[in-house]
Amino acid sequence: MKMVNMQNLGTEKELLVDEINYKDLFLIIWKSKLTISITTIIFLLGAVFFALQMPNIYKSEVLLAPSEKNDNSGLAGLTGQLGGMASLAGINLGSSATSNTQLAIEVIKSRQFIANFIEKYKILPDLIAAESWSLANNKLSFDADLYDPATNTWVREVKPPYTPKPSTQEAYKVFMELFNVMEDPDTGMVQVSIEHLSPFIAQQWVNWLILEINNEMKERDVAEALRSTEYLTKQLEQTKVIDIRAVLYKLVEEQARTIMLANVRDEYVFKTIDPAIAPQEKSKPSRALICLIGLLLGFLLSSMVVVFRHFNRQG
């Protein structure tokens, strides 16, 4: 008896599915076309209003090429002869432009580098509190609930552990949402970009970033070369073996060469191929896409509600 009931129930479901075809759905929607149209228009107007309220975001980007490193293959052979002396001195004679570039990319994305960058150029208000940008006078407007530019004070209300002035962690998080670094694995070219409300600020930040990362890598290499030179000089004073002294002199010469190149080369780790510009066209938002999504969302939701109410009444 139970088996018969289950079979009957299955048959009824199949019949119900057969009855609900595309034609019926179309007729149901067509009968409520006025309701659906009004709802869709409301969603579309809401999307248009939302899209118009969103400020333009501009992206400035620069294309970079890794600076050529010196060929250290001969010195690398000397390093083998020395039996690890160079490695003890902290000298990496086998480093290539690629590895140096990868290191620079990781440094430029690091918390410490970004924090120092924000602090050095005093860009925290432009980063956190900027609300809009005026093309007429090329000035930023700030959110009055966050920052008072007249007194240069932060007035935002936050709960501990946060403070009115954004912390380094907050600033880093916001900055990384606007900042991007990409390396082409085939060509080795590096693209650095910044998005901001102001195209001129975006361009300026990109230029500052490239200047700072070149200086940072230069200072690191000079400091390492000086430490290595000091160590090698001490080894020269302690050894009397002519062959080892010859290799040590070569290593000292290489460190001196590194320091010299660092002092004369401004574009130390990255060479600018295509410099950053202040873009005339926004990169986002795509207002047409937002309106289209609002239109489709309004139509789909209103159609689903109409169909659901229709079958709910019948059931």
Automatic annotation (TrEMBL):
Domain Polysaccharide chain length determinant N-terminal: 18-120
Keywords associated with the record: Cell membrane, Membrane, Transmembrane, Transmembrane helix
Pfam family, one: GNVR
Tyrosine-protein kinase G-rich domain boundaries: 271-310
Sequence intervals crossing the membrane: 34-52, 289-311
Recorded coiled-coil stretches: none
Membrane topology summary: Multi-pass membrane protein
InterPro entries tied to this protein: Bact_polysacc_biosynth/exp, GNVR, LPS_length_determ_N
Keyword Cell membrane included in the entry's annotation: yes
Subcellular location as annotated: Cell membrane
Major localization listed first in the record, in broad terms: membrane
Protein name: LPS O-antigen length regulator
Organism: Pseudoalteromonas neustonica
